[in-house]
Amino acid sequence: MNTCMPRMPLNLRKNTMASSPGSRSALTAVSAPLSEAPRRRSQVNLSDQAYEQIESLLVSCELKPGRFLATHELQAMVGLGRTPVHQAVNRLAADTLVIVSPRHGIQIAPVDLTRERVLLQLRRDMERFVIRLATERSGASQRNQMLHLRRQLIEHGADMTIAQFNQVDRRIDQLFLAAANEPFVESTLRPLHTIFRRIGWIYHMQTPQHTNLQSTVDGHIAVIDAVANGHVDAAITASDGLMDFVESMFTVLEREVAPSLLDCSLDAMDDTFAPIASVENSL
């Protein structure tokens, strides 16, 4: 005797599956992540946007080195919500560009010239590695983009503001990293670029004798020329020359820039002596 259950008609099986609570929940579980995917992508884009805007404010010292502020202040400055700003702050903290403290909130990392001299040695070696790869691996489209940026620097370099130069400089860095095609390097070199872009801004904006950008522009033109034309040794030499120029900034900054411009929290120390001065004046 056949002990198997009778087979259910096909149309009944379809109806049963369609009305099954288990199948409905399974369909919901599958469709929910699909519907959330665009929202997650949008959130990532907002996080990147928040990072870039805060980074730009940091480089231009609109967010002064050493300044303390709260998350809601950053939200107001960049015009974005709490979540993308919070995510951006976490990335900036990992990049050592901000310091997050439970008691004091967010502090923009002060400029530590001693530390950044050491980091310049690391940057020099990493730039050599990236420049070599970019020279060897760049394609025709990337070389055309390099030559376009070179032409911009030649045509506008004499009248370029530091803000305009930093925009071009950032595109150059991104292009070299893309041409090198080594993602492992990017996460380390990107924050180094930001650190030294801020050093350059202070150098050109806060030291009266060094407002001219021509030396910086010429250094970048030399690197682009060599990379775009496939000359590895010349590209590395030009990169080293640019790092030598950056290193020369430190002596000037140590001699000519007030410490409070490198760490505005030092201004709080002046308040310590204000009552003493007022008492002496009253006597």
Task: Write up this protein.
With 283 residues, the protein is mainly alpha-helical. The protein folds into two domains: 37-108, Winged helix-like DNA-binding domain superfamily/Winged helix DNA-binding domain (Arc Repressor Mutant, subunit A); 113-262, Four Helix Bundle (Hemerythrin (Met), subunit A). 76% of the residues lie in helices and 4% in strands. The chain has twelve helices and three strands, in the order ααβααββαααααααα. It has helices at 10-19, 21-59, 71-78, 82-94, 113-137, 140-156, 162-180, 183-206, 214-228, 232-256, 259-262, 267-282; strands spanning 68-69, 98-101, 105-108. A three-stranded antiparallel sheet has the order 1-3-2. A hairpin with a 3-residue loop joins β2 (98-101) and β3 (105-108). α5 crosses α7 (162-180) and α6 (140-156) runs antiparallel to α9. The radius of gyration is 27 Å and the shape is globular.
- Counting DSSP H or I runs of 4 or more residues, the number of helices is 12
What does the overall shape look like?
globular
- Determine the strand fraction and express it as a percent band: under 5%
Strand order of the largest sheet: 1-3-2
What's the pLDDT, averaged over the residues? Answer: 86
CATH homologous superfamily annotation of the largest domain: GntR ligand-binding domain-like
Distance between the termini: 119 Å
Number of structural units classed as domains: 2
CATH topology of the largest domain: Four Helix Bundle (Hemerythrin (Met), subunit A)
Text of the CATH class of the largest domain: Mainly Alpha
* Level-2 CATH architecture of the largest domain: Up-down Bundle
Q: Could you give a short account of the major beta sheet?
A: 3 strands, antiparallel
> What is the ordering of alpha helices and beta strands?
HHEHHEEHHHHHHHH
